[in-house]
Amino acid sequence: MFKTIVALATPPLKSALAIIRLSGDDCFFVADKFFSKKVSTIDHNKIMHGYIMDGDEIVDDVVLLAYIGPHSYTGEDSVEIMCHGSVLIFNRIIQTAIKCGATLATHGEYTSRAYLHGKMDLIQAESVNDLINAESEESKKLSMMSLKGKTSELIKPIKEDFGALYSNIEVNIDYPEYQDIEQANVSKIIEICKKNKDYIGNLIKNGIKGKIIKDGINVAIVGKPNVGKSSILNALLNEDKAIVTDIKGTTRDIVEGKIILNGISINLFDTAGIRDSEDKIESIGIDKSKQELRKADLVIAVFSADSFDEEDKKIMNLISNKLNIIVYNKEDLVTKKEPNKLYLSAITKNVDVLKNKIIEKLELNQSNYDNPSINNVRELGLLQSILVKINHILDTIENTPIDLVSCDVKSIYLDVLSITGEDCDFDVAKEIFSRFCVGK
């Protein structure tokens, strides 16, 4: 039995209205104890107007929406109370509901119950949190496709292929005397593995692109002191976020900012100038710069257009294994520009060429925006695990007994089920839902 839980479903701020959610097997009976009308006698989903009562005292004049399970978000009897958006009032209603037998909901508990009651799979459940955290229309669009089940459809062909293959192998092993059973021979296993290897490879490739659209990227701006890093940050943000002076070492800590380019959230990090320094405080800033460089998805390395020295060479070595953009700032200082180099003058704030280069580096096309993708870290990790196991089967099948191949096929099948949550350890599910806000 699922006990009734209660939580605020809207932000805990003063507003015109607030919504309080209750859900559970005895939800209507709990509501009967503090609502002025009988809820437990309804026989269909219903909207009711009445009063929240704490004993004989009227707490608020509200609208109550009653949903009979399974026709609710969680799949169980649920109530939503629309009350006045006073912090005092909605807290009092929650306290009254708890006094009448409800329990305060934990993070993501409503969506967790929806998953447990089969209202959505784990891909859809994770997309709920992605939808709440979406920072652009493009990110919202991808999350909505997942919520509607379109992303889950991408997993079905893999599930069907390896489910059928595993069943076939096991039947062949257990009942070899039956001649009318389709044989899961080596060629058939290789055929299915090769087919899914290509398919999963494309899912991973598109998923990584989808993750960029959904989550954005971290971009570190690095270079030695006084090459214009902070000016470039300010120009990209179109505001004076970072202090700009001609004194070397002005930036000593990470300065952050955010922009949206083509629907992608670009998290910018202006770093302290990288150079050899004996100044203790500046050295701490330089170490932070190097840490930020290592964590970044993309590095913008800034050099002065009129010079390139040993310190610049060291920075080039630092970024050699990172996705990077090389920028030559202060273009007004050179009369002859080399082809295929990105020049700009941050002081003029004309950084459109740099913005375009950032988008170009991400190698996205319109299909990445328009089609569903497996773009969640957990889901991508499972796909990569499946790909490793498929490669192992293809590499060893000629010299491996069929019963051992069956173990690998079963492991792949269970990984596929884990993506949608059909064979998911509930401890994993609890960890996922702990990232949600209370009330969702």
How are the elements arranged and paired?
Blueprint: E1 5-8, E2 17-23, H1 27-32, E3 46-54, E4 57-67, E5 78-84, H2 87-99, E6 103-104, H3 109-116, H4 122-133, H5 137-147, H6 150-153, H7 156-174, H8 186-215, E7 217-222, H9 229-237, E8 255-261, E9 264-270, H10 280-295, E10 298-304, H11 310-318, E11 324-329, E12 342-344, H12 352-362, H13 366-370, H14 377-396, H15 402-420, H16 426-433
Parallel strand pairs: 1-6, 7-9, 7-10, 10-11, 11-12
Antiparallel strand pairs: 1-2, 2-5, 3-4, 4-5, 8-9
Helix pairs in contact: 4-5, 5-8, 7-8, 7-15, 8-14, 14-15
Number of β-strand runs: 12
Our Rg estimate from Cα atoms comes to 29 Å
* Fraction in beta strands: 15-25%
Q: Tell me the count of domains.
A: 3
At CATH level 2, the architecture of the largest domain is 3-Layer(aba) Sandwich
Reading the helices and strands in chain order gives: EEHEEEHEHHHHHHEHEEHEHEEHHHHH
CATH class call of the largest domain:
Alpha Beta
Strand order within the widest beta sheet: 3-4-5-2-1-6
Portion of residues in helices? 40-55%
Anisotropy-based shape: flat
Q: CATH H level of the largest domain: which superfamily?
A: P-loop containing nucleotide triphosphate hydrolases
Helix/strand/pairing class, anyone?
A: alpha/beta
Question: What this model shows, in words?
Answer:
The structure is a single chain. A 6-stranded mixed sheet has the order 3-4-5-2-1-6. Strands 8-9-7-10-11-12 form a 6-stranded mixed sheet, sandwiched between helices. Helix 8 (186-215) runs antiparallel to helix 14 and helix 14 runs antiparallel to helix 15 (402-420). The longest helix has 30 residues, at 186-215. A hairpin with a 2-residue loop joins strand 8 and strand 9 (264-270). It is of the alpha/beta class. Mean pLDDT is 86; it is low at 177-181. It starts with a strand and ends in a 7-residue tail after the last helix. It folds into 3 domains: 5-105, Probable tRNA modification gtpase trme, domain 1 (Gyrase A, domain 2); 154-213 and 376-420, tRNA modification GTPase MnmE domain 2 (Four Helix Bundle (Hemerythrin (Met), subunit A), Up-down Bundle); 217-365, Rossmann fold, CATH 3.40.50.300. 45% of the residues lie in helices and 17% in strands. The radius of gyration is 29 Å and the shape is flat. The chain contains 16 helices and 12 strands. It has helices spanning 27-32, 87-99, 109-116, 122-133, 137-147, 150-153, 156-174, 186-215, 229-237, 280-295, 310-318, 352-362, 366-370, 377-396, 402-420, 426-433; strands spanning 5-8, 17-23, 46-54, 57-67, 78-84, 103-104, 217-222, 255-261, 264-270, 298-304, 324-329, 342-344.
